[in-house]
Design goal:
alpha+beta; 145 residues
Length: 145
């Protein structure tokens, strides 16, 4: 009976300390451009593009494997946090490996990162197919052209 109490207490403590609050904070803030979104949805999120061109005008190597599919490329300047595909995965892995004790350090660090990234400007290039749906997007620093 005593061992069952210890086991239940241990399981309860493990469960309570593996909440991944920092991972939730990271993924719950910012915007994300998903493949398959319509162009009008992207414009609602990011605003009007600063430039628009076809795939011939687009010179990024990241699109070369899909160059024949690209019909249109919009370039947006966006001030705020832009989420990437792997957003929050680092926090979740650290949380799992340390049974939640990393949250003591990760929550303040994540809050500071969100504040910094929310005031940063980004250049977002969005490529569309023939149906004006997102094929791919690239987020870069506007000063590094």
């Amino acid at each position: 009976m005593k061992i069952n109490l210890y086991l239940c207490t241990l399981l309860l403590c493990c469960n309570m300390t593996t909440g991944c609050v920092s991972a939730w904070m990271t993924t719950g803030t910012g915007v994300r451009i998903n493949d398959g979104m319509e162009r009008s949805e992207v414009h609602k999120i990011l605003g009007s593009p600063v430039s628009t061109g076809d795939s011939k005008d687009f010179k990024s190597r990241s699109y070369t494997y899909k160059a024949e599919e690209i019909r249109l490329v919009d370039v947006h300047l966006y001030k705020g946090k832009v989420n990437t595909v792997d957003e929050g995965s680092g926090q979740a892995i650290m949380n799992a490996l340390t049974l939640g004790t990393a949250e003591v350090i990760m929550i303040p660090m994540t809050a500071a990162e969100i504040a910094i990234r929310s005031s940063t400007s980004h250049k977002i290039s969005v490529a569309y197919d023939d149906n004006l749906r997102v094929i791919d997007s690239i987020v870069t620093d506007p000063d590094k052209d």
